[in-house]
Specification:
The chain has about 450 residues and is mainly alpha-helical. It is built from 19 helices and 6 strands. A hairpin with a 2-residue loop joins strand 1 and strand 2.
Length: about 450
């Protein structure tokens, strides 16, 4: 498999257990395509600057192509002896191109090489996640448009509070995922920085054209400090932080889907294709997808804690501890992508039980605030109106009634200002129609929010 690149300094072979303990190839082999792409850009720059010849560059480029093909076809044997993907590629390149392979590492270190690979990987994956969130937002807007007249109870403290449009509820998640997409787009700016050429920590004595390498690899800018370049993992921490927030949003949505699909709520029915059964109870239909998304949130939040703790006390510049940054990063990317994708597929297959939602909205005194507002319109100070409405609720509870079931005479026990016009005021349709402030659940507001979202998504396509 080839010698270690530091053999000249050492008089003893590395202990086999140390090789196993320090090896990262099982994890970082995922970076092979980016490692090879970065190496091709590096050798192109070396040839452009006369540091290697064009013939040498051609041989290296051809050899790297064959190495990439071997790894893609699972034809390259990985070994703990060579530790990581960089050394595997270099060793395999020696087999393909001969002694000229030893020139490829001129002017670079594995420290700036791994920083480059991680940034290239995360750039590509962040763009894929942004696209996934865009698709999820489109699904939510389509659902909102389809169910824009469906009324449901709005909740605070998990208690029925006021009636809202189901579309309004869905658009709340649209806004959450919009912020998630914006966070991803913003974090991409810090990821899109090219560290190659920083070498181990101090730069290199070779006249590297880092700007050329940047252009070849499609980065927005070149890093400005070689020590920071090789020791910076802010971009990973920032991404995992944004991913954690996104997963928390998905988890909150999952919790609601689990509740809504239960017999106690029965607001929705999740498609059989996205549920599972029980090994013992034949009647069961379990919302496992939503539960697993909720559960996988713990993994991503745990990954954030892992990488923040990993970096918290590291002195400059590179330290081997930083090898441990790949697993939380890769796991976060894979978990978030899977959760976003499966929700994008599952949500359109949910059946909304409109009548059940409407029925639930008519119980639990969801019009109590509107009764207070009714009295305010009649000139009663809000705090006094609040008290009158509360006493009316207490009376209705004692008599097993809803507010809209009370008679005018019963209402007048609490205020002479209440008349027969109160019943229209307390109707669900009127309650929703009156929520006219920007961002409220009024019919026109929600329709406008849907239209605005459609326009925003179309512009972003």
């Amino acid at each position: 498999m080839g010698k270690k690149p530091w053999d000249g300094r050492f008089s003893q072979d590395t202990d086999a257990m140390v090789e196993r303990f320090t090896s990262s190839i099982d994890v970082d082999k995922e970076l092979y395509a980016y490692d090879i792409e970065g190496s091709i850009a590096h050798l192109t720059m070396l040839a452009h600057g006369g540091i290697i010849t064009e013939d040498e560059a051609a041989a290296l480029r051809e050899g790297l192509g064959r190495v990439k093909e071997k790894i893609s076809n699972n034809e390259l044997e990985f070994s703990d002896t060579l530790e990581d993907i960089h050394m595997h590629v270099e060793s395999a390149l020696g087999d393909e191109a001969g002694n000229v392979a030893r020139k490829l590492h001129t002017g670079r270190s594995r420290n700036d090489q791994v920083a480059l690979d991680a940034r290239m990987y995360l750039k590509a994956e962040t763009l894929a996640i942004i696209e996934g969130l865009f698709a999820l937002q489109k699904v939510l807007v389509e659902m909102a448009e389809k169910h824009k007249d469906v009324v449901m109870p709005g909740y605070t403290h998990m208690q029925r509070a006021q009636p809202v449009l189901f579309a309004h509820h869905l658009m709340a998640y649209y806004e959450m995922f919009k912020r998630d997409r914006e966070r991803m787009e913003d974090s991409l700016k810090r990821t899109d920085v090219m560290p190659l050429g920083s070498a181990a920590l101090a730069g290199t004595t070779f006249p590297l054209n880092r700007e050329l390498t940047r252009k070849l690899l499609g980065f927005a800018k070149v890093s400005d400090n070689s020590m920071d370049s090789v020791s910076d993992r802010d971009f990973s921490m920032e991404f995992i932080s944004a991913a954690s927030i996104c997963m928390i949003h998905l988890s909150r949505f999952s919790e609601e889907l689990v509740l809504w699909s239960s017999s106690e709520f029965a607001f929705i029915t999740i498609s059989d294709a996205f549920t599972t059964g029980s090994s013992i109870m034949p009647q069961k239909k379990n919302p496992d997808v939503a539960e697993l998304v909720r559960g996988k949130t713990a993994r991503v939040v745990g990954n954030l804690m892992a990488i923040i703790t990993l970096m918290k006390s590291l002195p400059l510049a590179y330290n081997r501890d930083m090898q441990e940054d790949k697993e939380p990063l890769f796991d976060t990317v894979n978990t978030l992508k899977a959760c976003v994708d499966i929700y994008t597929r599952m949500l359109p297959n949910i059946k909304v039980n409109k009548e059940t939602m409407l029925e639930a909205s008519q119980h639990g005194f969801l019009n109590a605030t509107d009764l207070a507002d009714y009295l305010v319109v009649k000139g009663v100070p809000f705090r006094e109106a609040h008290s009158i409405s509360g006493k009316s609720v207490a009376y209705a509870l004692e008599n097993n009634k809803e507010l809209h079931d009370l008679t005018v005479d019963e209402f007048k026990k609490f205020s002479d200002l209440i008349d027969s016009d109160v019943f229209e005021f307390l109707s669900i349709e009127k309650m929703i129609s009156r929520r006219v402030t920007h961002g409220g659940t009024g019919y026109d507001n929600v329709q406008q929010a849907i239209k605005q979202a459609e326009q925003d998504l179309k512009r972003a396509e």
